[in-house]
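request received
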Amino acid sequence: MSDRRAAAIGLVALVATGCAVALVALSDHDTSKVATIALAVPVGLAFIAIGIVAARRRPENRTGLLMIATGFAWFAGALPESNNALLFSIGNLLGAASFGFLIHLVLAFPSGRLVGRGVRALAIGGYLLVGLANLGFMLVDDLKDDCVDCPRNVLLVSDVSAIADTIRALTALGAAILAGGVVTVLVRRWRAATPAMRRALTPVFTAGGITLLLAALLVVAQAAADALAPTFYWLLLVSLITVPLAFLAGLLRARLATAAVGRLLAETPETPTRAEAQESLRRALRDPTLDVAYWLADGERFVDADGRPVSLPDGRDRAVTEVQREGRRIAALVHDPALADEPELVASAGAAAALALENERLQAKLRARLEELRASRARIVEAAQQERRRIERDLHDGTQQRLVSIAMTLGLADSRLDRDPPAARSLLDEARASLTDALRELRELSQGIHPGILNERGLRAALEELAYSARLPLELEVALSQRLPDRVEAAAYYVVSEALTNIAKYAGASAVRIRVQRTDGRAVVEVADDGVGGADNARGTGLRGLADRVDALGGRLHVESPPGRGTVVHAEIPCA
Amino acid sequence: MTTTVLIVDDHASFRASARAVLESEGFSVVGEAATGAEALAAIPDTSPEIVLLDVQLPDADGFDLAQRLTANGGKVNVVLVSSRDYSDFAQLIERSGARGFVPKAELSGPRLATLLA
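response:
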């Protein structure tokens, strides 16, 4: 709401106040003018003034406008004080309209929207009751029963007290049902609300609920011509003023809470220990369920204070407020949706905590990195274990069985040596052939454990052999003036070896280019093919194992493999 | 009357070598099995006097199988074999109910005969 519009509404409200005061003061039939002015004027002004404040703070929330409407309808309720018959009649017809708005206002709190069919029906019922009941009554009652000095009722068709009494009784019944329905809705809502939400609901629900109950009691007492009716009337006036004050309390609470947040966070050290900012925010916003998720830009993900990945909720059960620092996203606050009704509060808390959150974010980033390293180390150990099992299996099933067989063949040859020398000779030949095979298997096995040529002749020679036996159309370029450290050579060798194995298995490539060079103290290894692409670093255990191996040396392995556009495996390994 | 043998081992090369050795030394190899299941199926058909049983089969543990075959006064003689050494399995061999153990590389007719004596 703009300043100009707020000022205009304020001006109109003052004019309406003046008119209402004049109507009461000049009234020939009001017997308690001072009390009426003293209680009724503050009620109307409070609704309008606090409504303007609320509408300016939350233009998108209809609560403020409903309060302003309630206030003006309330001033219209002064018209029955008029000595003019037409104004008196219109006043009596519209006199209760403010209660229609009040029911709407309370039911729509705090969102300003009526949610649910039953709630909408109650609000419509309220408007119908305050409109139609008075109209029906005024058609058949001269309004002189309690007020002989009152002006003429211009809507009167015929004074039929039997019908008037029936309408009065039905109105009382309707008011009782309506008040009961509204109070039931409020109690249910309150019970279903979270603690944070209850703090916001309690003042408004209490003041609104009591006021509407008193209004219903007044209508019932009037219908029964009970002596308590005037008492209920004065109680209602007093109770009415508490309603806008309850709304004001809510607005002030947000302000006070913002100040409290500032104070609490000022006590939070700028370099907090783990999740200290989260604790401060929980206390400041009085939401024990609040969680902080820290943003890691390089990983494009959120982590908790321990560096473990977390995903933000997208349901209605939780609300999320992003915290930025110097234009960059640093964290997200995951909190009770009740706080979403006070976005400035959460935002200012986030802003006040930004520096502490940024420091925690850096710690969380470090922990996330440690977590990655721990996982990668576990995978390396597991891979080594699997490798040992494989070697044991290969030795047992291959070489060992062959040697067993050779031993048995030699035993057989030995037993035949005397009686059948030719058979013994053929057994010896068989044993020698088996030994040759066993030797070949052993060589292959040890080559798999660590290629001997790499130790003896270096990376270039080892890669040349690898390229030769790969049987792929291949271009190899090794630009190294001196040998790399052993572990770097081995990692580089396995990067190329694994990449070539994958190319042979999956890529269907027609050209492969291998480049190895040393740049800025790093060995850079790149294997590019023009095959089908679509390789996934996270999917294949081979690539994952390679990434771990390179990672363990402080390097980085990057695989680029868009579907249909070839694959580039790029590794950079520090040589120091 | 020759002694009948069933060879149970998942390595075909060992089965072939063992058959050659034993047959040349007067045993009669009445069948071969590569798994525990195959062995259990072959025993009623071939009624071997000796089951030459590898301690590690793809579908069964040789020691367990030996225990099953020798329990309840079973008539069959089980001789366990392995490419490993006796000392690797001493306790398991003792408890298995087998007549004995021969390292594969040392398998021979006289060795088997000694165990059965």
